[in-house]
Model the fold of this input.
Amino acid sequence: MITKLSVTLGLAIMFAAPCFAQDAASQKFLKEAIEGNFAEVEMGQLAKKQASSDGVRSFGEVLEKDHSAANQKATAAATSLGVTPPTSRSNVRIRLLRG
Done:
């Protein structure tokens, strides 16, 4: 499910017309999607490291793998559209992850 969503999002962004990223709302969406992927990757790493259940550790591995792949595609798409992609998750997402 996550993989299909990631692939769909990646393809939609990659094949969007260059004018897609011209307006501020589109740029904001793209940047937040990339930041969100960074947060998901970190949550996956945290699950792999700290979970006591094999199932949770396995899910963490899938989460990290899928969102890393999605972020590579989204970052490439952002760059091709002239949008400077974020290189990490935002401070807001850091506060949300820490509670």
User: Anything to note?
Assistant: The helical segments are 2-14, 24-50, 54-80, 91-98.
